[in-house]
């Protein structure tokens, strides 16, 4: 049997199943309920927080034959085909690999055509990757979209989306999940899927997720497949080396990471992330997505390097 990743298997199929993004879910669901859905939404947020999932649920709600209180039924022909990725009412395009003006013209030429359901939803992922020519072509359509068409533009970098496109769409921001939300997601998936995962495995998945549902469930996949790969050792060692001003220990930690196949860039990014966490903890504003284990580490490091206040 083909293995389906936990992230795909437990991808939310209704607005109420999307976690930690209440403001976004409420905006979209209310718009469906009150029949005042706009022609363009810009969904921004870190990777793995549910941008395309929200767009798919919206597409279902807009084509479902049995919408109840703004939620798609999940069982009608339209809902089933959107879940299966076979619906003609939802067109997904990765703007990163289709970023040329000709790609956009091809897409927009079809916009005027009809669609089997009530509403055709175009989901353009990584929309900030479009070239200037493609952006201009899209802009023209956003200015006068056909009635039955809705654009959902998704991006991890909203500041790179031109102002003219941003101003023609409602901008909804998804955020990283808090450690508490992520842990409850991981625990629910473990229980529902009947996985044999211990507390250490759950903690590992939450830490690896760093606020991203997709990253946490990918880490859980790896825990299930073969146990835990300890990605944190070199970061812990580097922090200790910094605190003790010990260059030899730092170089040894870096070398150990490389020996385990960890790219120096990844180690560097993890170190910067840990330093930022320590700084925020020292300032009394720990990030909400920080799990207890990372918070403890940040506190220990902050204590070691911060001059005592007398
Ligand atoms: Zn339905």
From TrEMBL:
It comes from marine metagenome. It catalyses: DNA(n) + a 2'-deoxyribonucleoside 5'-triphosphate = DNA(n+1) + diphosphate. This is DNA-directed DNA polymerase. One of its GO terms (cellular component) is DNA polymerase III complex. It holds the Pfam family DNA_pol3_delta2. The lineage of its organism: unclassified sequences, metagenomes, ecological metagenomes. Its EC number is 2.7.7.7. It is an enzyme of class 2 (transferase). GO terms for biological process: DNA-templated DNA replication. One of its GO terms (molecular function) is DNA-directed DNA polymerase activity. Belongs to the DnaX/STICHEL family. Residues 37-177 form the AAA+ ATPase domain. Keywords: ATP-binding, DNA-directed DNA polymerase, Metal-binding, Nucleotide-binding, Nucleotidyltransferase, Transferase, Zinc. InterPro entries: AAA+_ATPase (IPR003593), DNA_pol_III_sug/sutau_N (IPR012763), DNA_Rep/Repair_Clamp_Loader (IPR050238), P-loop_NTPase (IPR027417). SMART domains: AAA.
């Amino acid at each position: 049997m083909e293995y389906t990743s936990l992230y795909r298997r437990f991808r939310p199929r209704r607005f109420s199943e999307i976690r930690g993004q209440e403001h976004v879910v409420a905006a979209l669901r209310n718009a469906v309920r009150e029949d005042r859905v706009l022609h363009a939404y810009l969904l921004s947020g870190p990777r793995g927080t549910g941008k395309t999932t929200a767009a798919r649920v919206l597409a279902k709600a807009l084509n479902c034959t049995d919408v109840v209180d703004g939620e798609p039924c999940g069982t009608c022909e339209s809902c089933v085909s959107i879940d299966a990725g076979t619906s003609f009412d939802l067109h997904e395009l990765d703007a990163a690999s289709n970023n040329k003006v000709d790609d956009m013209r091809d897409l927009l030429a079809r916009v005027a055509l009809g669609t089997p359901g009530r509403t055709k939803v175009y989901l353009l992922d990584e929309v900030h990757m479009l070239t200037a020519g493609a952006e201009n072509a899209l802009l023209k359509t956003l200015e006068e979209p056909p009635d039955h068409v809705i654009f959902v533009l998704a991006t991890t970098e909203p500041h790179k989306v031109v102002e003219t496109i941003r101003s023609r769409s409602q901008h909804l921001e998804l955020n990283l999940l808090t450690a508490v939300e992520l842990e409850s997601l991981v625990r629910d998936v473990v229980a529902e899927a009947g996985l044999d995962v211990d507390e250490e495995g759950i903690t590992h998945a939450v830490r690896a997720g760093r606020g991203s549902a997709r990253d946490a469930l990918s880490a859980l996949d790896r825990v299930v497949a073969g146990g835990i790969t300890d990605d944190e050792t070199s970061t812990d060692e580097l922090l200790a080396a910094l605190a003790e001003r010990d260059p030899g220990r730092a170089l040894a930690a870096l070398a150990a990471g490389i020996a385990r196949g960890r790219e120096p860039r990844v180690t560097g990014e993890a170190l910067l992330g840990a330093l930022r966490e320590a700084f925020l903890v020292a300032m009394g504003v720990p990030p909400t997505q920080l799990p207890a284990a990372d918070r403890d580490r940040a506190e220990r490091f902050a204590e070691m390097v911060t001059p005592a206040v007398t």
